[in-house]
Design goal:
heterodimer, A: about 600 residues, mainly alpha, two-stranded parallel sheet, about 70% helix, about 0% strand, globular, disordered C terminus, B: about 375 residues, two-stranded antiparallel sheet, 17 helices, 4 strands, disordered N terminus
Chain lengths: ~600, ~375
Amino acid sequence: MTTLPSSLLLDWKRIFKWGSICAAALLFVSLVGMPIKLDPKSIISPLLSLGYVSLLWLPLIFGYVASSRVVLEGVETRKPGLPDLLTGVLTGTIGGAGLTLLMLGIENFDIRDPLINWSPQLLEVLAFGARDLNSAVWIGIGGALGLVGAGLHLIPENLRRGASYGFFTVLALAIFEPALDDMSEGFRLEWLVELIFEKRGGLKLWPAIILALLIGLISVVTKGKAKNAVAQYREQEKSQKKKTSVVLFGIVAALGIVLPIFMGTYVNSLLANVGIFLLLALGLNIVVGLAGILDLGYVAFFAVGAYTTAVLTSELSPFFAPGMTWVLSLVFVIILAALTGLFIGAPVIRMRGDYLAIVTLGFGEIIRLLFLSDFLKPYFGGAQGILGVPGIDLGVVYISGTDTRGIFYLVLFFCAIAVYVSWRLQASRLGRSWMAIREDEQVAEAMGINTVNSKLMAFVVGAVLASFAGAIMAARVGSVFPNSFMILISIVILVVVIVGGMGSIPGVFVGAFVLIGVLGGPKQPGLLQEFGSLKLLVYGMLLVYMMLQKPEGLVPSARRTQELHQEEFLQDAWLKGTDDEDEEQTVAGEEAQI
Amino acid sequence: MAATVEGKSKRRTPLVDRFLFVVKVLLIGLVTIGFLAFIAQQISPDNWFAKWRNPGATGLSGDQIKGLVISGLSQGVFYGLIALGYSMVYGVLGFINFAHGEVFMVSAYTGYIAANKFAANGMWESNFALCLLIVLLLSVMVSTVTAVLTERIAYRPLRNSPRLIPLITSIGVSFVLQNAVLGIFGPGTQGYPQLPEWLAKQRSILTFEISGIKILVFLVTIVSMTGLWYLVERTKTGKAMRAVAEDKEIASLMGINVNRIIVTTFAVGGAMAGVAGVMFGLLFRAVNPMTGFLPGIKAFTAAVVGGIGNLGGAMSGGLALGSAESIAPQLILEPLGVPGVTQLKDAVAFTVLVMVLLFKPSGLFGERLSQEDRA
């Protein structure tokens, strides 16, 4: 056992490294235009807006990171103390100095020609709206935030959790403000909303502080109880677990059916958006998450679903307009989507995983280009698309595209189907063979799995689920255009699946609600409309971050986690001295029994 | 018992293979018929065979065909230059660096900014050659740094993870680069300054009408290809690169710093994309944040067409793809009576990719990959 020298000497190299990364991040965020774009969204009115949050969290995080130390096994670490605080302060200061320089730069040079955000507007935001603010104030702010960040190491973990819960409650309330606003009318709770929120947006100061303290306190008092409950649920016997799941599912289903009655147009259409992407993501989850086939042209099936519905139901379809009802057309949608799945799947099924990704991406593009081209214009209307897709006549009720509540119920119904299908498939023979293929295709084949057929089935199931989303989309919007089916959508769905957790159904739910609900889809606005085009940047960063830090996703599936962290599991097992009976082999054993 | 099972499996061809056979026959049939119809229409547009699908057939004049070839080749040069980066990275690390097209876009943007700054103070007209050199060097530097940075931040931590993880990461990187450029420089399409008269002028070389800038593009490409060939085949670094591509572990046992070689690979690939970016900007004189996406994917196609990991193959694959996508619509689709053929350019490029992977997955000139990557 050795002790680290507990001198007061600072690790200057480390401070400089993290400080300059922090400064670069701050400059990047400012020049991309986040502070300006997000400024209108106020969180605590009028003190704090989302634009400032986008800047202020950086010194805090970097202060925290710079002052944390690597804990090695067998080495006694000394208690965090003054040197760590100083490290945090200096890191934050260097970061803040970056913004100071930026302000000085904007004042003295005009390079707005290439950099569109190098503007007086940015300067105004950075100067907190004051005209003659000394730009050096950011050095102080950076230092202070760095200090807070480093200070987080000093306080007990319990308090730290309380503080972060309090903060995130306020943030979440501000983000959900439009939704709460909309829902309060149905529940006759306008007074509550008025109590917490300012008229022009943002929380009022005192309610925000009280709520933050309250939630923080609750989390400190009930520390770990939620985690224990989850652990208890996991340890339950299978039959009891099933019972609990059924009860939980019942509650969720009841909420899903009852809540929309009280919700306004805004929340319903938002949830319908989320639902459509959820449906797509559940389908892609089968292809990518379960079977491990990286299909980047997934949007093609979405397009096939939408176009089939449009051609079969619309009276204005240019070539062939049978004017079917939506329900009848759904039968053809399923058949055509399955055929497209086979058609696209068959040529690519034997390719290496990465070639497959690019080729499917090519197919996704080809299908859009074909719908767009003059070649198929007589059949699909070219760039003008197909207009006049009628609503959905269910015999009992008629759901028009603008009836947000009806559409939401419809989406809910199909999501339920998708969840049921993926849940049942996961444990089935087919699902287990998908997972075996995902882990090692050659071994799976040697075990007697017909890999070609299994993979094709994954394509078909995924295609059918996506085509449902397309069919709903066509009826909802009332028209289809080729440019609604850009490759972008495939990638956004992929991000949803990955952020949530590949191969995990709850994960996909979380991913869809967090990403599509809050940030919004490629063209659909979410709760934070202010993000605008920046949301794609956030999507990209999230994708990279998740891949680097948490490739198994926010709500990981147990088996996928083991695959991705195989080496760590093996190491742990080796450290414990149980190198023969480690987890990995039991997983492999389970799969071999298919 | 075993024998009967074996015999059974030999007799039955999987349904998928039969389907693929039909697809292959159909593809070849279409191409052949289209080509024959084209020949018929060249012989005489009044021919019944030419009139069969395309009653308005007129045939192409020799100059038109030459023009298509030239424009195809000059497109192909870009695909080739970008494909080199894909090919090298795939050879060394075994994954598709999806963000490579974005490196190309970043270079085109840098070129646009620098060139416009020069144009603003009049140097672009008065001292074009010097300006071009500076713009080129600057853009190549920026794109090299971008490529190296992406490797350092996004790919290095994933060196030993499953194959699809770095691919997905690179999709994210590509998204980030696109949207960062869009956020920083604005969404619009930006224009390069006007070229000087002597460069924009049409010249006639060996009966080919070709604009000066295209000649410049070809010259720069030849120079950079020669440089790359020298680097890879004649220097110690190049030898080390080839060794790392063959087997990383053995290479490191031979005293090669694998990390440094990987960084060098990304840098060289980035530099090639940088050259392509500036040339692209000069030729088409417009750049927007999405500029890199399609050329990037098509360059990957080119790398596969030529055989991934094979540098000469990447360049020839690029030229082949460029000419195919420029000529095939007029040569094969038009005689088949498809209207608006030029819109299908991109679809042709992707069809070429699918066809190459169906008929000859190792590319026209063969892959040069280590054993494990070929699996």
